[in-house]
Amino acid sequence: MSGHLPATSVTADYAQRVSDDLSANRSEQERVRAELARLQDELVRLEESEQVLTKMQEVLGGTAKRVAKQSKGRKTAAAPAPRRSGSKTAAAPAPRRSGSKTAAGESAAAPGRRTPKKAASPKKVGEPTWLELTTSYLGGQSEPKSAAEVAASLTEAHPERTVQVTVVRNTLEQGVAQGLLERSKQGRSVFYSPASAALVPSDS
User: Fold this and answer.
1) What pLDDT is recorded for position 195?
2) Is the C-alpha dihedral spanning 53, 59, 62, 65 positive or negative?
3) Which residues lie in Basic residues bias regions (predicted)?
4) Most buried of 34, 55, 69, 151, CB within 10 angstroms?
5) Can you tell me the distance from the alpha carbon of 57 to that of 192, in angstroms, rounded to the nearest whole number?
6) Max alpha carbon distance in the chain (Å)?
7) Does domain 8-69+129-204 have CATH number 1.10.10.10?
């Protein structure tokens, strides 16, 4: 019977090693799955940012061409201005020759009549906040939108403003905190829509 003891002890050692290796294998699988899920989330965020940046690049490229055309048009339109001023200066010596006060009065009144035309271009002061832009946009949509979709739409609607996905996402969360918006989740994506409670007063 003493000859069987080493065999059983060796078998027990192998069984313990196999058990330890199996436990380590399962732990490694859990770690890899967790890392894979984190990388998938990061990939989704990067893809959303890529879509927004691509649309922003297209919009900004179009607006840059428009601004260049407008600036060229303004320069060409402003070129004849010195010719007009030259014709007015040619008529200026007339009051000196006549020596009449009425002619001088008419020439002094002439620039007074032109000044209102220069000041007739009121400037727009103040712009809507991000919260106003996001809630207004979502209010006109028939289905919830993600932060990336909202940012892309605001970039097209307001090319003069710099739109960032992080700013839009924080603004949407602010709207949720204030009860203006609602948050819904589909898989790993988060979508936003107008709060149903906020829509009730508009129907009445």
Assistant:
1) 86
2) negative
3) 66-75
4) 151
5) 25
6) 146
7) yes
